[in-house]
Structure prediction request, 601 residues.
Amino acid sequence: MTFNGYPVIETQKFNDPTLTLAAAEMAALTLKRFGRPDTAWQVAFELNEALPSFEVAFKGSTLTISGPTAVEILYGVYDFAEKFLGYFFFEPGKDILNGKGALEITEGVLIPARKVPFKVRGFVQEYPFDENSPQLADWMAKNKLNFLNVWMKYYDGLDYQGREAFRIRGIEIQSGHHNFDYWIPAPKYHKEHPEFFAEIDGVRIKPEADENALLLGKQLCTTNKGLRKEIVNNMVKYIEENPELNSVALVPNDGFGWCQCEECSKFYDKSKHGDLYSLSTHVYIADRIYHDMVQDIAGQLAARRSDLDLYFCAYINYCRPTENFKLTPNLTVMMAPYWRCINHRIDEECQINSHYADDIKAWCSCKAGGKVVIYEYYMGVNFYLSLPQIFHRTVFQECAWYESIGVDGIATQFHPPHWSVYGINFVAMAKALRGEKEEEAVPRMMQALFGDDAAEAEAFYEHMRSITASAGPCHVTYPYALFSRTDLAPYAEAVKLAEALKAKAPDNRFRQELRIWTEYLYRYKALFDAFHAGCAGIREIDALLEWVHSHRDSRVFVHARFDMYFEAWRTAIRQGKEYLHFNLDWEDDYIRQHKLTLNGK
Prediction:
């Protein structure tokens, strides 16, 4: 049976706010699609715990969306809208509706239920909630993402209404991230408990309020029993004040600076430093000292709140699990392949990624009821500088490998202001995490974004990928690695390709912003070359920054990050230092090593 009328939601009352939202969304999406309502067919929702995910079926005059939970039924509404009504949910706040690609509605199962390969699917948010956060919650639900990791200080600023917007859409907010300083803030504890803070070179450190917010290089005295007990007390209090949360986190301050007191020093093998791939050759490996703390606090927390999960991270000099470590049911590790190579998949043979792959497999091997979540960088590392990073096909292949070894999910850093650069990565990740196939999802996305010019757009993205491939056998996404090892000509060609796409649809905002993106890359590369030839300085840097800021109404640049990064460049010039990255000595040393290793030497 074929239906060509105008669907509406039958009048239903739901006690569940998620089902109420699903009904409202179905009504709004169909009304927008067809222009007016009609009673020719109706929609019914059916909870069915036997299903692995949502199912959409059409029989008689009724469209039935079934699912094991209300959230899965909501997902079914959005999936039906994409596959049968011609929608595509590419970016927060701007649904695409062109009717192309919509399928004919015939009697039977339209969208069968399928096994969902990953439990955790989402984002890492490193910025405060704002007036655009409701759009983010909406977009995440439309793309079936269910996890948002945020800084605790940002979660504290989110009001009840904002929290509910995420909860109703099935999105778990994990309030954690780097948080040693949150659990034990120096202004509160240092005077009476200096022993809680790391001892460096024989002196207890005192983090100052005006220091870098990441507290690079300053940790706690993690073996201190009183400190551990106080952290557990603070965790329990935090959950009592925020009962909607299902988890807490125990994540070191960003950077290094682990305690060197007599007790903590027992956990280091001082003859063994970290590895180049994890940027830790200059420090001792800290996995034993960190994991001992994690296991102890997890046990204390479970004794008081057995319902809570404890999140922790694997990162830099604590990437791999300690021998005999077990991920028990209340533990989730977020494994961060920081400064990964983007020229290879995470599972490919690679001087960088192969080490991360081994670490990830090791974490999966020590699962004993707990979870392994990959903390990804599908937007580049560090500074959100909109450098080319093409993952919209690779992510499907990586997810297949992750599923095969037992990974439970992925969350990537992101930022809405650069959506036109990395949005294809975010959408593709969401599709892959729900088990969609590359050969189905990518063409649908390209058709929605580019219509009849989809093949030309694919050629554009392949060219952008070829730029990073030309940087050498391996490539890590930061400016010096890219611009010091590539020629200017491919950037000029990228501008031409983007201009050609724009010329075919000059009023299309997305195509306009691809043109802005490629011109930015060309300008940045030209400035980089001129600077290293001795032909450019602060005035030219300021001119590029001014040009970037002239495009504040685009979704290409995270402007505050450009201000920070370019100021570091200016500072290097003023101080007569070699400009490499962000003027952190330890970080610059790794870039010097990358000059050789990324070229395969």
Remarks:
- DSSP finds 21 helices and 16 strands in the chain.
- The longest helix spans residues 509-532.
